[in-house]
Amino acid sequence: RKDGSIKGNPNTLVTDLPGIYSLSPYTNEEIVTRQFILNEHPKGIINIVDAKAQEELEIFSRAVLRMLAISEGIFREENADSLYEAQALREVIGELGAQVRKRHVKRLRKGKCTVELGFLLADIVTAYERIAAHCAQIAVSVVQVWEEDSMEMHGYSIESREKRRDEEQFRTLYEGLRQEYVLP
């Protein structure tokens, strides 16, 4: 435990304590921190989260936000041009989820995380994967409905378009997105 004041605010006391992952202490450091919180009644607590886990979730969040934007664009503009991107990003988000889960288990084994935080992380990962799956399905459905409504005028369907399009476009988008959303 170290105490000090903030520059320019000499009447403010800041106490630096060992990091803990739960209020159920297992180590001497966790006991010191828990006792301070319970006995000293601090006015505030600043919790510094594992920087790597936070970076992982930021990258994951950006991918999901992009998926939402792509799906919304397809919905509002009735434009199928982004459909492959939505499908490729859905795959990438699934892979990110698997990587985040695996990395959590490694942190857990090293004692850098807790089971309790793992429950929260699992909920976030599952929610993100579901959002991505729903967005991809919305994108496909909107394109199908739009093309069915206009089939008489244009004389083609999404299936014939997919047959004509080279799968290389999907693979190129997929590889680009995998490189864009790499976990640290």
Describe it for me?
With about 180 residues, the chain is mostly helical. The chain is about 70% helix and about 5% strand. The protein has seven helices and two strands; from the N terminus they run ββααααααα. It has helices spanning about 30-40, 50-75, 85-110, 115-150, 150-155, 160-165, 170-180, and strands at about 1-5, 10-15. Helix 2 packs antiparallel against helix 3 and helix 3 (about 85-110) packs antiparallel against helix 4 (about 115-150). The relative contact order is 0.13.
Largest sheet: 2 strands, antiparallel
Rg, Å, rounded: 24 Å
Helix content: 55-70%
Going across the major beta sheet, what is the strand order?
A: 1-2
* Beta-strand residue fraction: 5-15%
Q: What is the molecular shape?
A: elongated
Stretches where pLDDT is under 50 for at least 5 consecutive residues are 151-158
What is the count of β-strands?
Answer: 2
Order of helices and strands: EEHHHHHHH
Q: Could you report the average pLDDT, rounded to the nearest whole number?
A: 80
Helical run tally: 7
Structural class: mainly alpha
Distance between the termini: 31 Å
